[in-house]
Specification:
The chain crosses the membrane at residues 12-32. Keywords: Membrane, Transmembrane, Transmembrane helix. The chain has one helix at 6-37. The protein is an all-alpha fold. The mean pLDDT is 89.
Length: 38
C-alpha cells in the first residue's frame, strides 16, 4: 500500500479524523442543546 500513493492514505486518514471530530462535536452540541432547553 505504501508503494501506490501515500497521498491517498493521507487523505483517507484526514477524512477519518475529520469524521470522528465532526461526530464528537455533533454529540457535544446535542448534549449542550438538551441541557440548555432544561
Amino acid at each position: 500500500m505504501r508503494n501506490k500513493r501515500p497521498i491517498d492514505t493521507m487523505l483517507l486518514r484526514a477524512l477519518a479524523v475529520g469524521g470522528v471530530l465532526m461526530l464528537l462535536s455533533a454529540i457535544l452540541y446535542y448534549k449542550i442543546f438538551i441541557v440548555g432547553l432544561k
